[in-house]
Amino acid sequence: MGEKEKIKELISALGENESEVVESASESLIEIGSPAIEELILALLDENYRIRAYAASTLGKIGEAKAVNSIVTSLSDENGFVREMAATALGQLGDPRAVEPLLNALGDDTRYDVREISAWALGQLGDPRAVEPLLNALGDEDIAVQDASLNALMQFGERALRPLISALSDTNALVRGGAARVLGEIKNRQAIDFLLDQLEDRDSYAKNTAILALAQIRDERAVDPIISLLDDPDDLVRVNAAKALGRLGNHRAIEPLVARLEEPHADVRTAAKEALKNLGYRIE
User: What is the pLDDT of residues 5-55, one digit of tens each?
Assistant: First the structure.
């Protein structure tokens, strides 16, 4: 059997239902590499959606740039699984030509898994055009898309600082909270004053993420505002305030935390005890 016939046979195997068969065929095609590219590109148009999907996946793993435009076309495939595999492949290829199509998929695709993978792929590509759309996607109706967008924004780090700070004023609480979470990971002190303002947020998620972000950044300016939250009516806010004070490590928090040991809510008492231990306070 000639190489071309072997390639076609392997591509046909990509349409099988047994995962072991598909994986083996894909690995063999990856080993063949460049000589398989043209047939794999043609396979993106196959009538079998599984062949189309795994052809896209295999092309992404081979890493051939000339396949980008064809895989971009697969982002509009009628089958959601094919679109998902195409988005994955584009993230692996890392070609800037994929940015706009992936942004469209992130914003418009009806399937959450395609939006999720598009967010991941945009994080891999690292193009600054993706920052604002990823911030908007923090407010997606699906939590998997929110998390993927959050993780993608973390890939940008300091490059996303200004848009992230601006997002703390977004009308969507999910966006405000997600932005705070990323800022906590970045740990840039330029965000402190804005996160302190978010401690006044009426939304529990947005307020709690600001508390936790300030604890990660560990700036002294956060100590007194977070101490005041030990009296917040929201149980979760009090829990996170106690945890944050344990991380911030300032002894001004000891007396207010001791007072929380009489708290009726068990989780708050537990958080206060752990915080006091972190501060070196011995509980009798």
Answer: 899 999 999 999 999 999 999 999 999 999 999 999 999 999 999 999 999
Could you tell me the end-to-end alpha-carbon distance of the chain, in angstroms, rounded to an integer? 81
Does 118 map to a domain? Answer: yes
Angle 99-108/112-125 helices, nearest 10 degrees?
A: 150
Full-model pTM? 0.90
Range of the domain at 21: 1-74
Under 8 Å between Cβ of 59 and 40: yes
Query: Considering just the CA atoms, what is the radius of gyration of the chain in Å?
Result: 25
User: Do residues 205 and 228 both lie within one domain?
Assistant: no
What confidence tens digit (pLDDT) does each residue in 148-193 have? 999 999 999 999 999 999 999 999 999 999 999 999 999 999 999 9
Identify the sign of the CA torsion 266, 206, 155, 76.
Answer: positive
DSSP, residue by residue, 66-133: GGHHHHHHHTT-SSHHHHHHHHHHHHHHT-GGGHHHHHHHHHH-S-HHHHHHHHHHHHHHT-GGGHHH
Q: Is residue 80 part of a domain?
A: no
DSSP summary character for residue 219: -
